[in-house]
């Protein structure tokens, strides 16, 4: 990459940027569902009780002095599930940039402990596009595996909560259409 052209070395010679944007960074409080909040509240209350009780014993020294510290990770997990995930998601979106070329979609992030990352996803005629039609809108164009305790689940990747979803969706469909028009006869 050079200072004149930040895309030098990233884009193919016949590749051009069609659109660039950023997601809406407002917290999505609607993600706080009862199914998630009730267990998180119970977990958090138990962690607080553990911390308070352990702190009362900490003045005895020795291992008892470490007990409040052992409660802190559980308190953090509880607070994250109680509402911290909404704030983290908003923060993550604030550190995210999107670009669309005539061949690929790009998602760039710059997050603490992860650093700067740029991922590209080819847009082909086989790419399954999904658009929620909302304002701001989200458009999916790829899937990535997420390791779980028991197996793997697939997470949709795309442009999340963008203000001009209809325009970007039309551009993505146009990229797919151009790919179809560029195919030799008999390959479509």
UniProtKB/TrEMBL annotation:
<feature type="transmembrane region" description="Helical">
    <location>
        <begin position="37"/>
        <end position="58"/>
    </location>
</feature>
<feature type="transmembrane region" description="Helical">
    <location>
        <begin position="64"/>
        <end position="88"/>
    </location>
</feature>
<protein>
    <recommendedName>
        <fullName>PH domain-containing protein</fullName>
    </recommendedName>
</protein>
<keyword id="KW-0472">Membrane</keyword>
<keyword id="KW-0812">Transmembrane</keyword>
<keyword id="KW-1133">Transmembrane helix</keyword>
């Amino acid at each position: 990459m050079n200072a004149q052209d930040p895309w030098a070395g990233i884009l193919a010679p016949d590749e051009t940027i069609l659109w660039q944007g950023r997601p809406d960074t407002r917290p999505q409080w609607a993600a706080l569902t009862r199914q998630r909040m009730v267990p998180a509240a119970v977990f958090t209350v138990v962690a607080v009780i553990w911390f308070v009780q352990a702190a009362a014993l900490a003045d005895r020294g020795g291992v008892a002095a470490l007990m409040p510290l052992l409660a802190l990770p559980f308190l953090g997990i509880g607070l994250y599930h109680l509402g911290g995930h909404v704030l983290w998601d908003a923060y993550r979106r604030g550190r995210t940039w999107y670009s669309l070329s005539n061949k690929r979609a790009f998602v760039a992030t710059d997050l603490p402990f992860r650093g700067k990352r740029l991922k590209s996803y080819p847009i082909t005629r086989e790419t399954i596009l999904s658009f929620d039609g909302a304002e701001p809108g989200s458009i999916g164009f790829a899937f990535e595996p997420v390791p779980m305790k028991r197996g793997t689940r697939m997470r949709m990747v795309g442009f999340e909560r963008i203000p001009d979803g209809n325009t970007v969706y039309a551009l993505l469909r146009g990229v797919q259409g151009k790919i179809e028009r560029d195919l030799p006869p008999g390959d479509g």
